[in-house]
Amino acid sequence: MRLELKEKVDKLLEFKKVEKLKEILEIKKVHITIISIVLVLGCIGIYDALNNKVTIAFDNKKENVRTFSKTVKELLEEKNIKLGKNDKVLPGLNSKLKDNTQIVVRRAFEVDLVLNGQTRKIITTENTVKDLLEKENITISKLDKLNFPLDHKLRKNDQIKLVRVQEQIVTQVEEVPFGVETVYDDNLDVGKFVQVQKGSNGQKEVTYKIVLNDGKEVSKTLIDEKVILDPTNEIVKKGTKNFIVTSRGDVRRFKKTLDVTATAYTAGFESTGKKPGDSGYGKTYMGTTVRPGVIAVDPKVIPLGSKVYIPYIGKTCTAEDIGGAIKGNKIDIYMSELSKAKKFGRKKLKVYILE
To answer: Taking phi first (over 0 means left), then psi (-120 to 50 degrees means alpha), and beta for anything else, what does residue 305 get?
Structure first.
């Protein structure tokens, strides 16, 4: 009986040991699982900590990458992105990479900048016209003219033209031209003028707004003026008398009067270089026979065929001849005798061109 009881007790103790062992094993299993999870999570955390997510924008494209590179330079080398001499990278090559870093590679390109009329070529990586001007330390006034908006995105071979505009207010003194007043006088021969009063210019103070483009004047606008000295008009008498009473008492109307230099000539060799029997001897330019009452004239002044009254000799003559020395306000009066022609000499005369 005791033996059986002992066996039962032993079996019970053995069962409890097994159950205890199982319990211990279950606890250890849980611990191992937890430790495994912790280790995995730790590795993932370490991986994420060392592996950054970065965006690279270059050559008109954008890439999202994960990298263990520490700097921008290392990442570009990793991705085999080559940089030209003047290319620009933002942030800088030595910048440390962090998660969500955004890298921009700007390729250098050439543009023309026209400033003060001079063109120069610029290698740039700037994004806009404004950026370029700031980079070149170029300031713009409100008046200046730019052929592109400041926010224009720069492209290769763009020509940026900046015109410097200046406005100037200039005050100066200018002349005011005098006028001419004409007074008609029927006691003065037609075609004659007599100055009664000499004219003199006045002065005015004028103010202009002048606009300059690159130093060259492009507009000039009058904005104010005031007379500081009035001009004095010239006064001239104009003859309206168009008739003359000849030495015979005849009343003749005339077109105009002329002040001329008068000489005399004959048909002989001394005056014409021709002798009786020579071709054209004794003939006028109009083909008529030379005779008293014929005069030689310059046709540009007195038309051929005109009737000309000469008060000095009291005769009305006809312009039928010309002469090599008769130019301008000159006439040559025909006389039949050489002695009379020589005696006449050279005189200043007033003549009338009759209607």
So the answer is: left
* Inter-residue contact 89 to 72 (CB < 8 Å): yes
Cα–Cα distance, 126 to 108 (Å, whole number) = 8
User: Residue 148's Cα: distance from chain center in Å?
Assistant: 19
Helix (H) or strand (E) holding 294: strand 294-297
Q: Per-residue pLDDT tens for 25-64?
A: 565 565 555 554 444 444 444 445 557 898 898 888 888 8
What domains sit in the chain, N to C, each tagged with a CATH number?
52-106 (3.10.20.90), 109-163 (3.10.20.30), 167-238 (2.20.230.10), 246-354 (2.40.40.10)
Distance CA(200)–CA(234), nearest Å, equals 7
CB atoms within 10 A of CB 144: 14
Contacts 24+ apart (CB under 8 A), 210-216: 210/167, 210/168, 210/169, 210/170, 211/165, 211/166, 211/167, 212/165, 212/166, 212/167, 212/168, 213/145, 213/163, 213/164, 213/165, 214/116, 214/117, 214/163, 214/164, 215/116, 215/164, 215/166
Q: Name, in order, each residue with C-beta under 8 angstroms of 95's C-beta and a sequence gap of 6 or more.
A: 71, 72, 101
Give the pair of three-digit tokens for residue 16.
């409890």
Residue pair 267/274 in contact (Cβ under 8 Å)? The answer is yes
- Determine the Cα–Cα distance for residues 22 and 2; give it in Å rounded to an integer: 30
Closest Cα to residue 295, out of 269, 316, 279, 324? 316
pLDDT digits (tens, 9 = 90+) for 230-267: 999 999 998 877 777 777 777 778 888 899 999 999 99
Q: In this structure, what token pair is assigned to residue 48? A: 């994420």
Residue whose entry in the numeric block shows the structure tokens 């590179």: 69
The rounded mean pLDDT for the chain is 86
Q: Are 254 and 190 in contact (CB under 8 A)?
A: yes
